[in-house]
Amino acid sequence: MKSLSLNPYLKLDQSNEKASSNDSESEKFLQRQLHLMFPYVPEMEKISTQLPLRQELPSLWDEIEGEMASRGAKFNTLCPIRAEMHRMLFDELIRQIVVILPQQGELLWRVRKESEQTVDTWKELCAGGQNYGNRVYTKIDPNAHTHFTQESTPPTPQPI
Question: What ranges do the domains of the chain cover?
């Protein structure tokens, strides 16, 4: 299941075959859809179109819990490690839905993109509000520490 792609939980086709002319049109359509949704997977690799197996779930769960523990993910606060792991798992869930029903998979992909944009917007608003609060605090208390007086643009959010 593991590969050299950026998302180790996104299931790739392990047969070392490239897309051939005898692939069915539905297989080619699925591959195009999946590569549009997951552009970080190289075009040379085929994303698996196998249906998910219920027997894989317990081992995947144990693997994820172990990975979160080894990377030091926090469960009670906002944690970029945990958010990244959830994003990777959501990618695999989208892949599974696309294999079963491509239109619903595309809808789920769009929902994920919209939620990522919403979270990024809230991060920028919070950073801007914090900068504004720091400027107001500096005007009220001129003896405030110098690190409060730095007027800077809000930091750009890091991808999760």
Answer: 1-100
